[in-house]
Amino acid sequence: MAGFKFSAQSLDEIQERYDWFAEMRANHPVWYDEQLHMWHVFRYDDVQQVLTDYAHFSNEQQAGTSNPLGEGALSRTLVLMDPPRHRQYRNLVTQAFTPRAVARLAPRIEEITQELLDQARTHETIDFVKEIAFLLPATVIADLLGVPASDREVFRSWTRAFDSDNPQERINRVQMQDHRTNMMGYIAQLVADHRRSPKEDIVTDLINAEIDGERLNEDDLLSFCLLLLLAGHETTVNLLANTILCLTNYPDAMEQLRNDPGLAPSATEEVLRYLSPVWNIFRLTRSEVELRGQKVPAHQVVIPWMVSANRDERQFPNADVFDIRRDPNRHVAFGHGIHFCIGAPLARLESKIALPMILQQLPGLQRVPDAPIVANTGIVFAIKKLLITWDYQQEMVGAR
After folding, report:
1. What is 345-397 written as a DSSP string?
2. Which has the minimum average pLDDT: 112-116, 121-125, 176-180, 376-380?
3. Exposed/middle/buried for residue 13 (C-beta within 10 Å: 0-12, 13-18, 19+)
4. CA distance 82 to 55
5. Within the chain, where are the H helices?
6. What's the whole-number mean pLDDT along residues 357-378?
7. Residue 65 above 70 pLDDT?
């Protein structure tokens, strides 16, 4: 299949992509694309091998590639490091993402979700992506970074500006560089303010993180905050939007979840597996390596398709069935091995809290009939517009 981006206007078009993955798993589990000069891996076991075996599959090759933030903007972050540098950096950053640090965000996540729902319930129809899925993680991350309420709209505009799939908000290279400069300057000032006046938030935790006398330097701190703002935000947006898409497509599952909010964690895991937010990543072979009997030369780009691995029938019985009670559910939506997404606990917490609240407070939730599902995919599957409605009159009666 030439190219890796497509726009979907219907569930049938999304399903066509999954049909292609199934064909590749069956007939071409390790495939060399002669047009793009890349290797593609589709089965669960092989994807796990590529994700886990950093001795053969390097993650650092992306540091020199172009990205919307400019050359090298994210080159100091965890996602672009190999051991031993990765291990040292992750050990420091993990101290700021302890279960206790993440759990203390729960009351604020609930508060933000309620504010968004209160606003949503004044309308009969909303774009779920724009009005809830985007704003919840954006506000949470702003809180994490200690951004004052008066500056949050500026932060949101930066996040929207880097969304190159949105033609209405797409900006040119010069504007992008200006945004990057302003953003990095703002984050640098935030870090400086936290050094002078420590607070109970992740920036202060990162500043104080120490192992064997080593701390994050200034460039490392700025790079991680930037990664948190951009990459951490997008994953949660897509997870929340994908959840509503799945539940509205499977109303029986939505009713089960509405009646039993305790199913929210397992439902979230099934959404991550069934409609993964991150579809693939890139690795570069350090030396020749064998994958399913094929010899892959050194210095070759290898793409493990996590989205395909998560529908592999060899790992998941009835893989194409959406089952919110699925157990076990060892998906690779957040990666695997040393590069497992460090922000996964936060994304899961936001979903666990927000999902039951959404279903309870928007009775009769459904997609707007005949409204197209606007979605793009490349490395990530991103729903750009998802119109929903609910029993508005019942809601208004209940509010009286």
Report:
1. HHHHHHHHHHHHHHHHHSTT-EEPTT---EEEESSBEEEEE-EEE--HHHHHH
2. 176-180
3. middle
4. 9
5. 11-27, 44-52, 85-94, 99-103, 106-120, 128, 135-144, 152-161, 173-196, 202-208, 218-227, 233-249, 251-259, 264-274, 306-309, 344-361, 392-399
6. 91
7. no
| Amino acid code (one letter) for 322 | F
User: Maximum Cα–Cα distance for the chain, whole Å?
Assistant: 69
| DSSP secondary structure letter of residue 95 | G
pLDDT of residue 305: 97
Contact 398, 391 (CB under 8 A): no
* Of 121, 132, 130, nearest in space to 390 by CA: 121
CB-count exposure of residue 165 (10 Å: 0-12, 13-18, 19+): middle
User: Is the confidence at residue 306, as pLDDT, over 90?
Assistant: yes
For range 355-375, the mean pLDDT: 93
Q: Give which of 328, 271, 287, 283 is closest to 49, Cα–Cα.
A: 283
**Both structure tokens of 162:** 């880097």
DSSP sequence for 315-347: TSTTTTS--TT-SS----TT--GGGS-TTHHHH
Q: Which residue has the higher pLDDT, 216 or 299?
A: 299
Residue 58 bridge partners (DSSP): 284
Q: Measured between alpha carbons, how far is 201 from 96 in angstroms, rounded to an integer? A: 9
The predicted model scores a pTM of 0.88
